[in-house]
Amino acid sequence: MIDDAVLSSCDKVVSEDVSLWRHTFSDDDRKIIHSLETVVDGIASVFGSFCEVVLHSLEDPSRSVVKIANGIATGRDVDSPVTVEALQQLHEIARQEGGDIRHATKKTQDGQLFKSTSMVIRSHTGQPVGMLCININMSVPASDFLEAFVLEGVNNAAPVSGHFPSSVDDLVENTVDRTIAEINSNHQLSNKVKNKHIIMSLFDKGIFDIKESVPMVARKLGVSRHTVYLYIRQRKLGDC
Predict the structure, then answer these.
(1) Digit-coded pLDDT (tens) for 137-182
(2) E strands present in the chain
């Protein structure tokens, strides 16, 4: 007869072998999942209340949901289990059938139709540690969806001008040009101090966090790098 210890050992091996993607979670794995919690709220705030966004941790599939926005759509909450569709996707990915992003349409028991996108979250070693799922309710009237998409979260937001740079040079030059226009519109400043204020304003905007931005700004303003560094130091010291 096989004793209980041997049976227990065999059960453990079989259990580990059945799962193609499970592994022991580390603190780094948990930090990766936690870092994406704000992404859930961000996506939900963009698309509105008819977009459910779910963050799963695969550490414990029986209570995988660690963050959810607009969960009323599917009746789930934090600590809800992973879905069978998600488990199937993980097994397909473990067998290298397709990529880490999957799209599907799903129908709930009450007849609601959802367009779903699921993305696998991987650890630093490439192991699946979580999933980010976006479920858009396609059953609601288009007018209601558009109203939520357009209006939710922006009623009190002031419009701002935006620029989407194609390169670092484009980013710096555009920011410098806009800052020059801002400073030149202040007629209380003399021409003698305008470069100083432009450089300090660029520092406040974080442009000098970009590598090689100092020589680019100096060239754009027609001043030396030493002048740029001087005004940056003054700004850091609060001497302005």
Answers:
(1) 888 878 777 877 777 655 555 555 566 677 878 888 888 899 999 9
(2) 51-57, 65-69, 101-107, 113-122, 128-137
